[in-house]
Design a protein that fits this description.
alpha/beta, Rossmann fold, 7-stranded mixed sheet, two-stranded antiparallel ribbon, 9 strands, globular, ThiF_NAD_FAD-bd, ThiF/MoeB/HesA, Ubiquitin-activating_enz
């Protein structure tokens, strides 16, 4: 039975697509500015089973852009904060919570740990990001990857495209180069923006560990990236014959 809280989505999509969503399992890796809103949109769309992964804790500097970041949640695990929120959205959600760092050596193990219908990559560190994408392609599991949302202001430029067609995105270039070394050239959908970043808005600091730098952000851009990623997942699950 389709629950009442999904009645507006049911009105738009109809019963069969909703039932497909309720029977689907989606993995979201990374619950920051992009991943948090993406996970929430996937849950609100009615996906019945989810696995969420993030080892980080809430820092007040996250408060301008991350769903789990509130003054009341500072210092708490993002995955646990998001888990409580997702279960409050859908009490029937079958949710697996992994408060662990996405180590590149464990990417294949994670991808193969369950029969996922779709995987979302919202990792912002290059090596584990690439290894997760590699594992998805090798396992034949559909994946959408968020590229760089930081340093961007114009939402009209945010684009969904195959990775090989992305342009003017530094992270995309690095990801492509690493994947090419593994013989992977196709099979990954990305959300990216070709908007150029002002280098003065980026600072190199040890506080960014495990990354090397911090970049300025505006609240709405990571959210838009996250919603676009969620749209790829939901449209693919209800219309598998149509490319997202």
């Amino acid at each position: 039975m389709i629950p009442y809280w999904m009645s507006r989505t049911q009105l738009l999509l109809g019963d069969e697509p909703i039932e497909k969503l309720m029977g689907s399992h989606v993995l979201v890796v990374g619950l920051g500015g992009v991943g948090g809103i993406c996970a929430e949109m996937i849950a609100r769309s009615g996906v019945g089973k989810m696995t969420i992964v993030d080892a980080d804790t809430v820092d007040l500097s996250n408060g301008n852009r991350q769903i789990p970041a509130l003054h009341s949640t500072a210092g708490k695990l993002k995955a646990e904060v998001m888990a409580a929120r997702l279960r409050d959205i859908n009490p029937e959600l079958d949710l697996t919570v992994l408060s662990t760092y996405m180590e590149k050596e464990k990417a294949a193990e994670l991808v193969q740990s369950a029969p996922y219908d779709f995987i979302v990559d919202c990792i912002d560190t290059l090596s584990p990001k690439v290894m997760l994408l590699k594992a998805c392609v090798e396992a034949g599991i559909p994946v959408v990857s968020s590229l760089g949302a930081g340093g961007k202001l114009d939402p009209s430029l945010v684009t969904i495209a195959p990775l090989e067609e992305s342009k003017e995105c530094t992270l995309a270039r690095y990801v492509r180069k690493r994947l090419h070394k593994h013989g992977i050239y196709k099979g990954i959908t990305v959300v990216y923006s070709p908007e150029k970043i002002d280098p003065e808005k980026v600072i190199v600091t040890e506080k960014a560990y495990p990354k090397k730098s911090l970049i300025g952000t505006i609240p709405y851009m990571p959210a838009i990236f996250g919603c676009q990623c969620a749209s790829v997942v939901i449209r693919a699950l209800i219309q598998p014959e149509i490319e997202a």
